[in-house]
């Protein structure tokens, strides 16, 4: 397998990894925050749904525009303004999965040269489509690990309070 093929598989599979990281959690577990200013599993899942929507726009810009400007977004403001604390996690996870599948469908059969298409991210500077796909895969994988860690911290806190 080529590096791009492996990367695309990680990008696609990340939606499943996120779904597994949230499966079977109670509402108390989903809403537990491991410390002040930290996000809960529910908030992380909502963030991933928002991130994937932003990623969808960026992918489309990179595929259709010459060296587009890719906008960052204020994730903390979105988390507060979009009420991530009370959104249904099932909807957030499904939104992430659906949009990730659509994004994967757009890029999975592209020639390897397409992954060099450049753009300029307002927060990260020069990027390519390949960078965006790698970042999307790593971002979801990292947040899935974060969700599992939050769930473990919840279980430990519950044991310690008994």
Shape assignment: elongated
Report the sheet with the most strands, covering strand number, pairing sense and barrel closure: 3 strands, mixed
Q: Any idea of the CATH topology?
A: Four Helix Bundle (Hemerythrin (Met), subunit A)
User: CATH superfamily, called what?
Assistant: dinb family like domain
Give the total of domains: 1
Return the structural class: mainly alpha
Helix content: 55-70%
CATH class wording: Mainly Alpha
Mean pLDDT: 95
| Beta-strand percentage range | 5-15%
Poorly predicted sequence stretches spanning 5 or more consecutive residues: none
Q: How far is the first residue's CA from the last residue's CA?
A: 50 Å
Number of helices: 6
How many beta strands in the DSSP annotation? Answer: 3
Question: Could you spell the SSE succession in H and E letters?
Answer: HHHEHHEEH
CATH architecture descriptor:
Up-down Bundle
The gyration radius over C-alpha positions equals 17 Å
How would you write the strand order of the largest sheet? 1-2-3
């Amino acid at each position: 397998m080529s590096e791009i093929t492996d990367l695309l598989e990680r990008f696609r599979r990340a939606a499943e990894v996120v779904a597994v990281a949230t499966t079977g959690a109670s509402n108390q577990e989903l809403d537990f925050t491991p410390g002040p200013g930290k996000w809960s599993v529910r908030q992380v899942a909502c963030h991933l749904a928002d991130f994937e929507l932003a990623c969808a726009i960026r992918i489309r810009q990179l595929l259709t525009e010459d060296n587009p400007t890719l906008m960052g977004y204020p994730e903390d403001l979105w988390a507060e303004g979009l009420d991530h604390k009370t959104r249904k996690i099932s909807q957030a996870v499904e939104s992430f999965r659906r949009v990730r599948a659509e994004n994967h469908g757009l890029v999975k059969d592209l020639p390897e040269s397409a992954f060099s298409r450049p753009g300029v991210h307002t927060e990260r500077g020069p990027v390519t489509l390949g960078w965006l796909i790698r970042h999307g895969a790593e971002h979801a994988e990292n947040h899935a690990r974060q969700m599992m860690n939050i769930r473990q911290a919840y279980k430990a806190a519950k044991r310690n309070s008994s």
